[in-house]
Design a protein that fits this description.
heterodimer, A: mainly alpha, Four Helix Bundle (Hemerythrin (Met), subunit A), about 70% helix, B: mainly alpha, 4 helices, 2 strands
């Protein structure tokens, strides 16, 4: 191979060719380097949420009654519905990555759009859950001033705001990740429609897919902890 | 976990040079494509396990599992997470280094949980000498213990 030749990946008819960055020797090396970097980023995401889960387990053990009362004020139907939405979006994302590997542009755009819609549905449910709690004086930390029957429920409990401090922090950071994911998926849809992703180059779809599955993984643990375990 | 094949340089001169000099087509990357039936199966299993974890939960079933409810919920969640990781995230077919990078984070996570648990469960057993003045003596316990 000549020293100045551009390395491109195999490009099916009607798609944009991808030029391998000059500091990589092969397309496979570029793909694997990008993926390893992304797995390391996902490891830091696990540690970010891991600290919050450690705090949850510790305080759940010490202030069991506060957590039992806090959890009982959540509607598990909404949590279960959101779980189904995120699991569905994880499946459609896996199918989207597969469509990109097969250079199926229509299926890729379709599955990415379904993933985006499930994410949007999740955030709509979260919006109604949050505003309902806020309207009853249930906010994070300093903003915890329960009204009406909530005031009676939490009366006399040690550190009554502890459960909701963790609830809002954990679901809040998770919700931010969902919003970031929606932005990334929208970006993928735009680029997919321009024919950027195909069997020869689909790294961005693969990596956003991995990110989205981690968002799902976190929720798989958040749902039973916050809504179901007394 | 099997390593994707790394062919050494399979490439050929492209006839289509787009007027930018010689372009070399590199065929080293081979996508691992899963059967769609596999993804549907995993999706169905995830929905079933969600149904199970909701069904046995105290607020839904009225079962009083006590401290076991946390154990059951976390075991089912771990099973769901492993399905997502191995198949949806392709770890089963990914390189050893990517498996190590991600599973390594879970090992460090378990260290965090373990030492937090050991700290809490041994509070008050390793108190400083009797007569240590407040607030130091109090620090060994939670405020309202």
């Amino acid at each position: 191979m000549s020293g100045h030749a551009t390395i491109v990946t195999p490009t099916p008819e009607g798609f944009r060719p991808h030029a391998v960055a000059h500091h990589f020797k092969t397309a496979e090396q570029e793909f694997q380097a990008g993926k390893l970097g992304f797995w390391l980023f996902l490891a830091t995401e696990i540690m970010l949420f891991g600290g919050l889960f450690a705090a949850y387990f510790l305080y759940h053990g010490v202030y069991a009654e506060t957590f039992r009362v806090g959890g009982s004020t959540l509607n598990w139907h909404l949590g279960a519905f959101n779980t189904v939405l995120l699991l569905t979006s994880s499946w459609t994302m896996a199918m989207a990555v597969r469509a990109s590997q097969l250079s199926n542009r229509k299926a890729l755009i379709g599955f990415l759009s379904l993933t985006w819609l499930c994410a949007a549905g999740f955030m709509v449910v979260k919006y109604f859950e949050y505003t309902y709690k806020f309207s009853h004086g249930i906010g994070p930390g300093y903003f915890f001033a329960p009204e009406g029957h909530y005031a009676e429920l939490f009366a006399g409990l040690p550190f009554p705001n502890l459960y909701f401090a963790l609830y809002f922090t954990m679901t809040g950071i998770h919700g931010l990740h969902v919003l970031v994911g929606m932005g990334l998926i929208a970006w993928l849809i735009v680029r997919s429609s321009k024919g950027h992703f195909h069997s020869g180059f689909y790294t961005p779809v693969e990596l956003v897919g991995l990110y989205w599955h981690v968002v799902d993984l976190i929720w798989i643990f958040l749902f039973p902890l916050l809504y179901l375990v007394p | 976990m099997s390593k994707p094949s790394h062919e050494s340089h399979e490439s050929h001169q492209s006839p289509d040079t787009h007027g930018h000099g010689a372009a070399v087509v590199d065929h080293t990357h081979h996508p691992h494509v899963c059967a769609w039936q596999t993804f549907v199966g995993i999706y169905a299993a995830l929905l079933f396990l969600t149904f199970v974890t909701v069904g046995v939960a105290e607020p839904v079933s009225g079962l009083h599992l006590g401290s076991m409810s946390m154990v059951v919920a976390m075991l089912v969640a771990a099973l769901k997470a492993s399905l997502v990781m191995t198949v949806f995230m392709h770890l089963k077919w990914d390189t050893a280094i990517n498996n190590i990078a991600f599973l390594g984070s879970l090992i460090f996570l378990s260290l965090l949980f373990l030492f937090t648990l050991v700290d809490h469960s041994t509070r008050g057993e390793a108190d400083p000498q009797a007569g240590t003045p407040a607030p130091y003596a109090r620090q060994a316990k939670f405020v309202d213990d």
